[in-house]
Design a protein that fits this description.
Layout: E1 2-7, E2 21-26, E3 29-33, H1 39-43, E4 54-56, H2 62-65, H3 68-80, E5 88-92, H4 97-104, E6 109-113, E7 119-122, E8 125-131, E9 139-145, E10 148-152, E11 171-175, H5 183-189, H6 194-203, E12 208-212, H7 220-228, E13 234-237, E14 243-245
Parallel strand pairs: 3-4, 4-5, 5-6, 10-11, 11-12, 12-13
Antiparallel strand pairs: 1-2, 1-14, 2-3, 7-8, 8-9, 9-10
Helix pairs in contact: 6-7
The structure holds zinc ion (2 copies).
């Protein structure tokens, strides 16, 4: 699989960049993980949106889903011009219901409700969704192809159910929203600190760790230094255009 960072900021992007958006590709299968502010515009640097096979929306915070509106309009045009015939599979939670109900009736989308433990196959990639702990109902994803595994946390705090039974990860893509000193704010908002991210990577026996979901004002090198105190594997800090072969 190839993994590409389209955007990595939260909850708003740096100038000219994007919030959460990641591309997982294997052969002709292209899955977009989240579609936050700026992702639709940035996506064109890596793939024509008409070639997307699926989109996974981890939860309905705007920095993870709001550019689905742009994608929807673009696809409407593509359908009219017959550049695309197949509906786009969109995996999303069914809560809050207002957002789910809206996207469910979009004719260009085939909406699939995500549930804890749901497994399915998208082209050449096997998907397994799991619940996370966040301010809203939220999910993470385990994507597997040709024996390689990518684990995407979405937004979450750290809890044992997140990693138990999922050890042996080739690439862990983990939200790293806060510094290690911000544990109470992390618990309050449902996010991870650098220390949590390192612990999660150790529990999952992750060979490589890609930290992401950064507040634009934070110094990324400082976040990196804190993760390195607890995680000794290969560590990458997300930035737009970062690509890795898994
Ligand atoms: Zn977020
Ligand atoms: Zn969130």
């Amino acid at each position: 699989m190839q993994f590409t960072v389209v955007g990595c900021w939260a909850p708003y992007p740096r100038i000219g960049e994007a919030c959460s958006g990641y591309l997982v590709q294997e052969g002709d299968t292209a899955l977009l993980l989240d579609c936050g502010h700026g992702v639709f515009s940035s996506l064109g640097r890596y793939i024509d949106y008409n070639f997307l096979t699926g989109v996974f929306i981890s939860h309905f915070h705007p920095d993870h889903y709001v550019d689905l509106y742009a994608l929807r309009h673009a696809l409407r045009g593509a359908f009219m011009l017959k550049r695309r015939i197949e509906k786009l599979k969109v995996f999303m939670p069914d809560e809050p219901h207002r957002e789910y109900a809206y996207f469910k009736q979009v004719p260009e989308f085939e909406v699939i409700k995500v549930e804890n433990g749901l497994k399915c196959r998208l082209g050449s990639i096997d998907l397994e969704f799991f619940s996370t702990r966040h301010a809203l109902p939220a999910y993470g994803l385990l994507a597997e192809s040709k024996g390689k595994k990518v684990f995407y946390t979405g937004d979450t705090s750290l809890f044992p159910g997140l990693y138990q039974g999922k050890e042996g990860i080739d690439l862990l893509v983990a939200e790293c929203t806060l510094f290690k000193g911000e544990t109470s704010y992390a618990a309050q908002t449902g996010h991870m600190t650098t220390c949590d991210v390192a612990l999660l990577a150790e529990h999952l026996k992750a060979r490589r760790l890609l930290a992401t979901h950064f507040w634009p004002e934070y110094q990324i090198e400082k976040l990196k230094g804190e993760i390195e105190e607890g995680y000794k594997g290969s560590l990458f800090m997300a930035q737009a255009g970062f690509k890795i072969e898994i």
